[in-house]
Amino acid sequence: MSDTSKTGLSRREILAAGATIPLALSAGKAMAQQAQGQPLIGDPQLPLPASERMRWAIVGLGTFAIGQVIPGFGNSSLSRITSFVSGNAAKAHDLGARYGVSRFYDYSNFDAIADDPEIDCVYIVLPVGLHAEFTIRALRAGKHVLCEKPMASTSAECAAMIAAAQAANRQLGVAYRVHFEPNNRDALRRIEAGELGAMRYISADHGFSADPNWPPHKWRLEKALGGGGSMYDIGIYGLNTSLMMLPGDVPQSVSALYSTPAGDPRFTEVEGGIDYRVRMASGINIQGSSSYCWSPYVSRQRYFGATASIAMQPATTYDDNRITLEGGGGPSRSFTSGDPMSQFSAQVDGFSAAARANRPHLTPGEMGLRDMRLIEAMYASADQDGAIIAV
């Protein structure tokens, strides 16, 4: 093989020339641009330094907290984790070593967070049956609280949580992450902009097959921890997201029927499925279904307007939501409007900003109370074989 390059120079000549380039450039400024610093232009929304971010305690280190919530802080710009609260000390310390967290509490000494200046906000990621107790304790400790959905087991518990927040002059939010998910926010933008024409109807279907032998599913089938059945856990996504797309409209009545398979041993304490209808003040109906008996996992929303419609399937997942726009005088087209995983960092940063200013969060406790009252009305209707319940 020839030792001559396409330029006609040998490798030895190229290497020799390269060795002299820095000297040549320094000898003649005209041969090179000079590196210069430039001023910061505009407002690039830089992340706050760690010392200025709101400091969070994560309460409950289950699969959702470990897999989604905690990693979401890695992309946040206003928030950082300073403490873990868990009944499993070994797991808490292991996660602490991975994420640089060195402050630990368990459920028996939880109230001591009142004396910890390194905690501003508390994220409750416990089973539903524990939401009210630990939210109220955190608020009484002087901390702002973001609580996972559903807000609590009963509307009475929700009201007590809101009262505790008011008494403590702290913010209480419910972790309705879909309000921060870019594809759902784009769907809302299009609806509000009139791209679908006047809204006419919404459908929502959400469900999966509950495995009683898998710990993350097992507690959902126990009323004391799960609070209720599928509507509490998976159906609430369809309900809350549908209401999100109808800003300013309010529910007037609900009706529902249970769809739990007869004789299924999984559902001795909670319902396994429910079909529901919500009648809005505008005359729009939301028709939905929720189930612990479906396979594969279903997350589907559809918004029908007078001139166009939006279908989202998946609609409310962690990492794979998409939009199909139909009608409106153009061809059907499917697209995504952003990375769904950004919803986790956007949610905690949104709450951090609200807590710092001590103003209501985008998804406040009052929203959680509204949804719990609707779910309770659904169960009351299903208990009466589909009777219409005013709300």
User: What is the CATH topology of the largest domain?
Assistant: Dihydrodipicolinate Reductase, domain 2
Overall, the morphology is: globular
Percent in strands: 15-25%
Distance between the termini: 86 Å
The number of distinct structural domains comes to: 2
Helix and strand sequence: HEHEHEEHEHEHEHHHEEEEEEEHHE
How many helices?
11
Which second-level CATH architecture of the largest domain applies?
Answer: 2-Layer Sandwich
The CATH homologous superfamily of the largest domain is called: Dihydrodipicolinate Reductase, domain 2
Mean pLDDT: 92
Q: How would you describe this protein?
A:
The chain is α/β, with parallel strands linked by helices and 391 residues long. The protein has a nine-stranded mixed beta sheet. Strands 3-2-1-4-5-6 form a six-stranded parallel beta sheet.
